[in-house]
Target: F173B methyltransferase
Amino acid sequence: EGGSRRSSWGLLVTAGVGGALVALYAVATPFVTPALRKVCLPFVPATAAQIQNVLKMLENRSGSLVDIGSGDGRIVIAAAKKGFQAVGYELNPWLVWYSRYRAWRDGVHQNTKFYISDLWKVSFSHYKNVVVFGVPQMV
Model:
């Protein structure tokens, strides 16, 4: 009886540790793999000042807006709050899902869209306003 109980406890601990490692891998991979690319595209959140600068540049403008490498969606959401139909493209699926949640939470999910996509494989020609914050190699 004691050996069976110990065996069950060991199996439970092994399963717990294994599950935690799989979850850690699933969460960390999208943040680590950009560093392994030829051009490193890290996630750096836009500051409040950068968002205000973008909004200032958008004054007296209309049409659709795209944020290339939208990260956690801060610029897309801010533009949607100003009445723009705003779209964000981001390679990291966790950031896209978080962006969609934030847009829903802030009540602008009707005016926003977020796509998981490699920015090098998308045409941005049909957008009137394009926002890019990136490393110099990307720009």
